[in-house]
Design brief:
The chain is an alpha/beta fold and about 375 residues long. The chain folds into two domains: about 180 residues, Alpha-Beta Complex (Quinone Oxidoreductase, Chain A, domain 1), CATH 3.90.180.10; about 150 residues, 3-Layer(aba) Sandwich (Rossmann fold), CATH 3.40.50.720. It is about 30% helix and about 25% strand. It has 14 helices and 18 strands. The strands form four sheets. Strands 3, 5, 6, 9, 10, 17 and 18 form a seven-stranded mixed beta sheet that branches. It has a six-stranded parallel beta sheet with strand order 13-12-11-14-15-16, with helices on both faces. A three-stranded antiparallel beta sheet has the order 2-1-4, with no helix packed on it. Helix 6 packs across helix 7, helix 6 crosses helix 12 and helix 7 packs antiparallel against helix 13.
Amino acid sequence: MKALIYDATKGPWSQTRGFWMSEIENPVLGAQEKEHVIVKMKYAGFCGSDRGIWSRVSFGEMIESSLRTEGKSQRTIGHELLGEIVEIGADVQEKYSLRIGDIVSAESHITCGTCYQCAHGDKHVCADDIIIGIAKDGCFAEYVKLPAKIMWKTDVSKIDPRIGAIQEPFGNAVHACTQVDLKDKTVAVFGSGAIGSLVIMVAKGMGAKKIIAIDTSDDKLDMARAVGADETVTLNISPLSDAKPWQHNISVTKRIKELTNGVGVDVAMDMAGPNASVNNAIQSVRRGGHVVLFGLKSGDFVIENFETMIRNGVQIHSVIGRQIWETWETTKKLLEDPATGIQEKIKKYVMKDFEGSVVKFHEFERESFEEKMKEYPKLIFDFLN
């Protein structure tokens, strides 16, 4: 079968770029894999993590160490999926109520089920989880073998199958927005890319009173306003500034205070990740407010005016993945309910009416795909055409 892979034999991690379309063996269910399924792919989402792997700035150690453990040199990438179950292990139907022919998406974190976190309802921070497409072969392939326990049945009569493929990242937005009750709250969203735009939609759907979107890109801010932001603030980064790279942007935080009558927002959500963006969020929130951190960057961070943050009683929430399966239940309700308008907004603004943002998997070509990565906030592979 055809698969998009990272191939360690092509050169050192830091000296290569992108993925390679290769012919690999089809997955086979072993005799002991009684709780696994094989899924024939229909659509797969290409996310920020995949971009990070493409450019070799994210997940290198995790990929390379897992390949060493498996004695392999190739990793099939991808973790956002929608497909049809075509083969099941002996125990799957009885234990998970899954059958051949079911259309499914998948939770991307394979949890151990035995650690302290799993035993106490915190599977999303499992101590020994495995991320598909990173530490285990993923879904950028014609077929993928996965544990049945991470499968999520999807009704494609209610959810467009192309949107069904991105339930996993939409769930990130849902998880971030459910850290705090957003009803009647003022909310600042730092970073208005694909996930940031989904956060704006969810926050609006959950009753936020005012949403302020912040980004460096005017195009992204236009999209943010189209999907529900009430105000937008442009973040200008001057190469001549003498500010340290971790310092907050005074003009941005000043504008946010002006938009909230000098109080600050109730909830500041950082979806971008850089140190300065985290400080922007902390400096924009009101006394007693909440900061939700989802953007992910490696390395040490500096927190400005740490004492002031403590004295102001700012509450910090770090978000990873999705709560299993509570987040998925909420995701299903939001997407299946036509009254939210979320599917239509994703289609029109994030996916650009599926014109150009949907790439035929079997026609993948590295250079043209990289150009599309620059143009579209979200891309989807189509395995059907």
